[in-house]
Sequence to fold (368 residues):
Amino acid sequence: MAGSIEAAPPLWLLAELTYRCPLHCVFCYNPLRYAQTGAELSTAQWVEVMRQARALGAAQIGFSGGEPLLRDDLEELVQEARSLGFYTNLITSGVGLTPARAQRLKHAGLDHVQLSFQDSTRELNDFLSHTRTFELKKKVAAIIKQHDWPMVMNCVLHRHNLPHVDKIIEMALELGAEYLELANTQYYGWAWLNRDHLMPTREQLEQAEAVVWRYREQIGSRCRLLFVVPDYFEQRPKACMNGWGAVFLSIAPDGLAMPCHNARDLPGLQLPNVCQQPLAEIWQRSAAFNAYRGEDWMHEPCRSCDERHKDFGGCRCQAFLLTGDAAATDPVCSKSPRHDKVLQLVRSAPERRHIPIVFRSDAESRSL
Ligand code: SF4
Ligand code: SF4
Fold:
């Protein structure tokens, strides 16, 4: 199949500059074995990746991690991205965004900032990230506003903070966020490991969503509230990445190119590396980017389903994690013969909460 399809260009380049991070979030989306990956790309290598991605057609770049502010060359990379014509986003925990650094990033042309919070309370924010960062994040939000950046506030939701959704929204309004992404936990990486501790109840989700709707009516366009659907409680899967190898290109700190930032753990993919192959060849012809592109790979029930153009059969990483088969129908779908497994995991989560919660750390990552 590789080489048989001329794919449309990627629109989104996610540059995961580093897996290093001062926080230790229990739901971190980085791979479990991040500390066992190779050396980070150099400044010159990232510049080359950006040039090639722009030539391919990518229009937006997200500088992410880990914590991208741990890279001393972030300003240089932002400046280069802007001069190439990218719209630039910084996706950050806030740690390291000092006034001086913010000024340099503004000067470099940074367009947009996404700042994560773990909760509206200091206690839970600091517990979930295993750091004292709550007050710092509030200061960083003020710095972002002082520099006139549009600000997305992001908060991952789970059973511990779903009852605080109203307070989280109030905090976003107080800090002047233009968007608030209320991201129900997606169970990958460290969230997969801590799934039972994070799993909410349906009642919690319904109450939180009702609160979100109430606020939407009250505040109108003052702050856009995005409520990311809670996968395990749905009847249909998300249109993951808008289709495999369709619009999204993720480059890991060690140069691995992936159609989705969770794809590292999928078996048998032989992910290409930007240090060894030109990006155009990776995007168009690599076996990994063509593995689940389009519809030829689908099995039943997706193959003959009239909804396959809407959700592309769901998420390949989720299918693999829940069934051991990356080409299976995402079990979140009620048409999947394995949908029961999702229902069962939700029901039985409280029974496994005696297993200790695991905070993301280099030591844990090396031991996994
Ligand atoms: S989820 Fe938390 S630990 Fe993971 S990269 Fe983001 S801030 Fe760091
Ligand atoms: S069967 Fe497949 S294509 Fe149809 S709705 Fe479910 S996941 Fe989507």
User: Anything to note?
Assistant: The pocket of iron/sulfur cluster (ligand 1) is lined by residues 21, 23-25, 28-30, 65-67, 93, 116, 129, 360 (CB under 6 Å).
